[in-house]
């Protein structure tokens, strides 16, 4: 009887032969089996990407093409990163770059490959630039690895890195520069035209440059210290998109950001205007920006170098100056001014139409902002007006007070509001030393800025138009802007990194809330607490500051560095994990209030551990500010902890692998199980089962079989 090659099934008086998976019955010999070539049926390895099919007896396998390797899951071929190996290309002379399934070595500047070299060749030879007779001009050429050097001939001086010119023929006395340029001589006496300090080179032309400083309401990042970082470039791009339209009426060629500083983000930038622009474009730009600083994007606008209190030519703009002695008192008192006022925590701007002033016999250069009784002839520069020409051709006398408590400002404060009053007065005319008396018309206009102590007022964008207000007691609302920062140290020298910022459990984290720096403003935090969500009323909370003092709930882990003692509040705590919460995040909330020392007593509470705090004086329920989220980092979040899966047990990471992989001896790496290992593991299981069954049988047999009696043997 013939036997089956693989599977045999008995039937009545006969049998049937069948084949295992991967084989078919041989039609010429039913007892035999033929291998199935799966690689001939479509593309069984298409899902693997760069792979080819290899037929095996009873099966097939997918083999990655050259330059590719199987991924960790064993289900796709991925490109081998040859450039990760620093020996792939000669890093001194070439640069490695990945290509699909391969790589190439590209020679650096000053090097070249031999002819007929493959892209993968890492041989790059130095180029002798001195073989080119034009490499150096009026100089000797010296070849160097990857470059060359030009040494000027005797009696010649360097003009560029590759050219020299005769000495002393280009002294500044022989040089004529264009408008906006000036001649400067180098150490060899060679004179060249350079842009003046008031100009900037742009596309080989020196254009007028006007410098500005703008304070935005965004949070400063450590990456902003490098203007070329991705974060800086993204911020500068958005800054230009907002700033350029504000000054769009002028002929702006470029806006160049020169520096970013903290507090919130202070932007120093230059605006370049075309050479054919108006004589005073900086005045138009400044006017437009001042009228826009109440927008949601900016809260301060300063200008560097603009003259104040100088002579102004009003001829052709305003009617002739009226003699004040011809104006009756009633007309003066009922006169209305076209004026515009801006109130910000770090800038107060007051603009008055110049023609309104000349109509009542006042020159703008006679005005100052000062306290009653002050020496008006000796006030600070910022308390004098800047004469600006608005975009509609009118003249404006504008006061830009960058420190809001200067210029004799009088502060008054109640539970909700801080009011600053500014008195604009006329400087008395100069009289001779022999005069005993004088008569002149005094002018005094009071402007009031009202600041909400704890509420940010969202003011709409002020368009470039002027509003008419009465001569006496005008008032405008402003706001105090508070910047928030999460830090690694109590001095907040280093901010927390990441988006969101991350912190390990038990590490200290500090937070800082700050007003624009001032000796008079005091920031007060009466209550601060943490919650696991952004909801400040979440019943799950961790108290940090209570009644202005460190909370007694966890005193050894809480530090209040500064509170009720300056323009900022700093506190910190040892980070922790919330109990029973999967998404471990920390949000910090504070009730903050602003107090002004000149208007009230801003002292804080007396804090004693374990004792009830004394009520805080001159404090009301402030505005709620929130920081966060902070993300808590566990060992499983650290890169390289586990290859595949990571779970925590008592705070320690436990690694496990996907199906088809086994955990390596290091406890974190996952190794793919080969077919031989699978077969060996099954044989081991079978052996264990056989041994176990045999042992069980012998054990049961010994328990239920009676022992035979032994015969006694007597010896004599």
Automatic annotation (TrEMBL):
GO terms assigned for molecular function: calcium ion binding
GO cellular component: extracellular region; membrane
Stored SUPFAM superfamilies: EGF/Laminin, Growth factor receptor domain
Domain EGF-like: 35-73, 79-117, 126-162
Superkingdom, taxonomy of origin: Eukaryota
InterPro entries (alphabetical): cEGF, EGF, EGF-like_Ca-bd_dom, EGF-type_Asp/Asn_hydroxyl_site, EGF_Ca-bd_CS, GAS-SHBG-PROS, Growth_fac_rcpt_cys_sf, NOTCH1_EGF-like
Underlying gene: LOC100177824
Subcellular location: Secreted
PROSITE patterns cross-referenced by the UniProt entry: ASX_HYDROXYL, EGF_3, EGF_CA, ZP_2
Record-given protein name: Uncharacterized LOC100177824
């Amino acid at each position: 009887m013939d036997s089956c090659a693989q599977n045999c099934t008995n039937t009545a008086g006969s049998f049937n032969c069948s084949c295992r998976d991967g084989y078919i019955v041989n039609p010429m010999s039913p007892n035999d089996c033929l291998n199935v070539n799966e690689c001939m049926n479509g593309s069984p390895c298409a899902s693997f990407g760069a792979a080819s099919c290899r037929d095996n007896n009873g099966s097939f396998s997918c083999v990655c093409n050259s330059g590719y390797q199987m991924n960790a899951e064993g289900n796709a071929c991925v490109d081998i990163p040859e450039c990760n190996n620093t020996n792939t290309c000669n890093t001194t002379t070439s640069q490695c770059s990945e290509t699909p399934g391969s790589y190439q070595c590209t020679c650096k500047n000053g090097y070249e490959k031999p002819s007929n070299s493959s892209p993968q060749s890492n041989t790059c030879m130095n180029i002798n630039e001195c073989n080119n007779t034009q490499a150096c001009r009026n100089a000797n050429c010296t070849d160097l690895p990857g470059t060359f050097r030009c040494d000027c001939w005797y009696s010649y001086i360097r003009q560029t890195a590759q050219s020299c010119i005769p000495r002393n023929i280009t002294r500044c006395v022989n040089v004529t520069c264009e408008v906006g340029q000036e001649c400067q001589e180098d150490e060899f006496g060679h004179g060249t035209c350079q842009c003046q300090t008031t100009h900037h080179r742009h596309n080989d032309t020196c254009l007028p440059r006007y410098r500005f400083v703008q304070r935005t309401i965004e949070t400063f990042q450590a990456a902003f210290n490098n203007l070329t970082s991705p974060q800086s470039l993204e911020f500068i791009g958005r800054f230009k998109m907002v700033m350029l339209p504000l000054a769009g009426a002028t002929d702006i060629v470029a806006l160049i950001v020169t520096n970013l500083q903290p507090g919130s983000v202070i932007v120093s930038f230059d605006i370049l205007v075309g050479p054919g622009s108006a004589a005073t474009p900086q005045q138009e730009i400044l006017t437009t920006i001042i009228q826009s600083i109440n927008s949601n994007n900016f809260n301060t606008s300063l200008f560097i170098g603009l003259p104040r209190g100088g002579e102004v030519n009003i001829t052709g703009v305003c009617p002739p100056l009226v003699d004040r002695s011809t104006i009756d008192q009633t007309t003066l008192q009922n006169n209305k001014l076209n004026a515009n006022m801006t109130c910000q925590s770090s800038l107060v701007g007051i603009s008055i139409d110049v023609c309104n002033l000349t109509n009542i016999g006042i020159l703008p250069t006679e005005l100052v902002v000062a306290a009653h009784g002050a020496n008006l002839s000796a006030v600070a520069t910022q308390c004098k007006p800047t004469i600006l020409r608005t975009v509609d051709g009118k003249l404006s006398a504008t006061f830009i007070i960058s420190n809001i408590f200067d210029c004799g400002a009088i502060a008054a404060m109640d539970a909700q509001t801080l009011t600053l009053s500014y008195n604009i007065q006329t400087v008395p005319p100069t009289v001779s030393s022999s005069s005993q008396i004088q008569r002149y018309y005094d002018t005094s206009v009071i402007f009031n800025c009202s600041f909400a102590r704890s509420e940010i007022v969202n003011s709409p964008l002020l368009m470039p138009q002027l509003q008419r207000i009465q001569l006496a007691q005008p008032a405008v609302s402003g706001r105090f802007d508070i910047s928030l920062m999460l830090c690694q140290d109590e001095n907040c020298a280093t901010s927390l990194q990441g988006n969101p910022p991350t912190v390990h459990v038990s590490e200290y984290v500090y937070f800082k809330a700050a007003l624009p720096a001032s000796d008079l403003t005091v920031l007060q935090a009466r209550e601060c607490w943490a919650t696991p969500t952004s909801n400040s009323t979440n019943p799950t909370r961790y108290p940090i500051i209570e009644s202005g003092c460190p909370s007694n709930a966890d005193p050894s882990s809480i530090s209040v560095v500064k509170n009720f003692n300056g323009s900022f509040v700093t506190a910190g705590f040892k980070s922790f994990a919330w109990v029973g919460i999967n998404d471990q995040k920390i949000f910090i909330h504070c009730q903050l209030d602003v107090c002004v020392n000149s208007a009230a007593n801003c002292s804080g509470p007396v804090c004693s551990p374990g004792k009830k705090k004394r009520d805080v004086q001159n404090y009301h329920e402030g505005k709620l500010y929130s920081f966060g989220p902070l993300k808590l980092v566990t060992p499983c979040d650290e890169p390289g902890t586990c290859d595949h899966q990571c779970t925590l047990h008592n705070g320690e990471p436990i690694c496990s692998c996907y199906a088809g992989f086994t955990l390596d001896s290091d406890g974190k790496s996952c190794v793919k199980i080969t077919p031989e290992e699978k077969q060996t593991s099954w044989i081991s299981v079978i052996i264990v089962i056989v041994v176990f069954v045999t042992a069980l049988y012998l054990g049961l047999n010994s328990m239920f079989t009676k022992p035979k009696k032994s015969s006694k043997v007597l010896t004599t």
